[in-house]
Design a protein that fits this description.
By secondary structure, the chain is an all-alpha fold. It has one domain. 77% of the residues lie in helices and 0% in strands. The protein has helices spanning 3-25, 36-61.
């Protein structure tokens, strides 16, 4: 596995972890407690990871 492929894999895993944390904070935890600030922070993190992944894929394709 190349470094670029591993980097993309790691970014996707991070975005999935942000999504899971958002689900957990929205009441998916054993106590069904809702944590609004964590929902928004997780959504912002997931959006940032997806934006970064798109930027990374586009920048790698461009010739240097």
């Amino acid at each position: 596995m190349s470094l670029k492929a591993f980097h993309r894999f790691f970014v996707v895993i991070c975005a999935l972890l942000f999504a899971f944390t958002g689900y957990w904070a929205s009441g998916g935890n054993p106590t069904a407690m809702v944590t609004p600030w964590l929902i928004f922070a997780s959504a912002a993190g997931a959006c940032a990871m997806i934006s970064y992944l798109v930027w990374h894929v586009r920048s790698v394709r461009l010739p240097a």
